[in-house]
Amino acid sequence: MAMLRLVIVLFIGLFCRIDAASAQDGRDYVRVIGRPETLAYAADVAEALVRNAQRKYPQLEQSSDEGAIRTFCTTVRDTPDLMLLPQAIEDARPVVCPSLEPLLNLPIGRQVFVVYSAPDAPEFRLTREILFRAMARELPRRDSEGALASFERNPNLRWSEIDPSLPDVPIRLLLPPRRSVQWLAIEDLVMRPGCASIPAIAELALIDQQMASQRCLARRTDFSLNYADPSAASGSQARIPKGTELSLNELRFVPEGMALVAVEGTIPDRAAIESGHYRMARQVVAVVKRNRLDAIPSLRDYLQEMTSPAAAGPGGYLQRSGLDPLSETVLRQSATQARFAMPEAVRRLQAKTVGDAAKPDAGLAR
Amino acid sequence: MSPDGIDRRTVLRAAIGGALTLRNGASRAEDKPPEYVIGLVGQGPVGDAMREGALLAVEVINQAGGLAGRKLRLRAETLNPADKEIRAQAIKISGALMKEKDLIAVIGHDEMSDALPAAIAYRRRNVLFIAPTITISDLSRHGLENVFATIPDNTDIATQTARLAFDIGLRRAVVLRDRSMEALEIGLAFRDEAAVLGITIINERSFRAETANARDVLAGLQGLRVDHLLIATPLDLAVRLVRQAGAMGLGLTSVLPQFTDPDALRPQLAKINGRILLPVLRNRVSPSIVQANWAKSFETRFQKQASDWAMQGADAVGLLAHAIGRSGTVDADELISLLRLELAYTGIGGRISFRRNGRIYTRLLAFASVRPDEVVYYMPGA
Description:
The complex is a heterodimer.
Chain A: H1 2-23, E1 31-34, H2 36-52, E2 59-62, H3 65-73, E3 82-88, E4 103-117, E5 125-126, H4 128-135, E6 138-140, E7 151-153, H5 159-162, E8 173-175, H6 182-196, H7 199-207, H8 209-217, E9 225-227, E10 246-250, E11 259-260, E12 262-263, H9 270-275, E13 281-289, H10 299-306, H11 309-312, H12 317-320, H13 328-340, H14 344-354, H15 361-365
Parallel strand pairs in A: 1-2, 1-3, 5-12, 8-9, 8-10
Antiparallel strand pairs in A: 3-13, 4-10, 4-11, 4-13, 6-7
Chain B: H1 8-31, E1 36-42, H2 44-63, E2 72-78, H3 86-98, E3 103-108, H4 112-125, E4 128-131, E5 147-149, H5 154-167, E6 172-178, H6 181-197, E7 200-207, H7 214-218, E8 228-232, H8 235-247, E9 253-255, H9 262-265, E10 275-280, H10 289-302, H11 308-327, H12 332-341, E11 345-346, E12 351-352, E13 366-371, E14 374-378
Parallel strand pairs in B: 1-2, 1-3, 3-4, 4-5, 6-7, 6-8, 8-9, 9-10
Antiparallel strand pairs in B: 10-13, 11-12, 13-14
Helix pairs in contact in B: 2-11, 3-4, 5-6
């Protein structure tokens, strides 16, 4: 009887493989879609795989959050196998396609942005709203309120003009290159939440989302903001703030000896980042179509490489590209799923055979 | 002893030494293996640029010792676009190239009309054909195993263009296309992607490119709520349409899914309210380090700026060299198998792997936003 069940499981597994493969029209490479700021990780993993074995590159495609999800989830033609999506840590929910195609959501790392200053700089206590008020091109006039508030050019030239408790020094912010992918993350982590906490813009968003979004993302063009040179190698983005200057950039670019600035009352140390209390961080999730894991050549290898300690662990090559490592436990869970997850039909049948439908793949593997 | 201190023995020694040197030199020349030949067929400025890019790549490879101990030689041929018998010309030139004993591949043939007959001829002789400029999908649909296209096809270009349009907030499109096969491909692929993303195609118009009047094509668009035009037609007509849209007060974004030089396009726009979005093969303002170094070498060698087509020519040679280096042979069947099934090569323009039909699928396009007074690039993240 057990033998018969095994044969059925294998048969269904083979069927799923054929079914998924035919849906992808005999494709012999992996398709990955993601937001531009996550594609560097996908590219690094691809390079590592190609270095280690003779195989084709994956196809990397990029789009916005919404565009990536629509492309990933459509059922009308061949679609990407894997999607890389940044998610706010406090709002991390598994991605579900409308077609209810079985998906695996595997966290692989974090993007962390920090504000830092020279060690002898005065103490700043920042919030995302303060940072937005320092960087915005236009702000609501102080004497107008509500959705119909009129806007004026950002009048804040000194930090103390934004909040009297801040040092009375000119606003000088050193930032990533003007059109770099880091800005997409800064928009999500700083500009949008900072902007949404201003009542006039929050009310505007209720009646004109597009206009509110424009207000939220437009940056001032005067001398308060200084951008790193895009033609410089990425390492030299780590411009060292001097005097009362502040710098906002990825954690990986913070030079030795700089002082990290608290945002929303939290210093971005390891404990605060891992607990999710530090707000200028978000996790990156690899969403993969479960039924394609063994049908698309190299997909499982790709996912295993992406969740391996050599890639996503501390000191891994993805950390050099800006992906802050997750705790060992979380990464190990992702790696186990990447290694042992099965097509949905096989998983269900096997779970039924074992008598525990709720048991996860990782449990079965053990 | 002679008066100047050179005795007869010394002279004799020198003569014998010289003769031996000459003999060794002669025997080295006899042993020198023949060069591998790469053919290149082009026409007009695109062909010239491709030839220069390929030539620089060949020179670099030869300076590094060649391939498997043999040097490369580029044999460049030019098609005359004024001659209407382009097909006959292509066959004649491909015939001449195939007389080269050590021909390993041919690069070029910019137009579908000459590429296809030439590709068939190369297939018969089992010669690889690399097409760095042809975007028509049809090239990869004839089952010609020797054909490899290193530029995305129209479907891929239109798909990536639709995604960019969606990502920057454009939601309502009008498709304007001529009645060529190429424009139809672009229109259909854009429509497909628009359906997936939720871009509404408000209207679609087709016209004869030779006789189209820009005012007639755009008539009635003022009344529609539209935020962008997809214009699939040759560049000169596309520019006329953009300018006419500007004259009609339509401050729209015009999307031109074709490769052209943004800096050359900018002065042609006169005063328009909107902007043009077009795909580009590299960002000239902030190129990658590899691209910057290559562009510098190109400028030193040819005393002029490198174009994207020169980069395509260089990458075609680099790709061949990589494949030969990896397989250790110039046997066409081995190379075809490698290129189709497992090649992963990073050239100046980016990563290259091919679908089983021989079309590149790895090129993530950058886009240029062109206004009369500025060109801004949207770069891919990887």
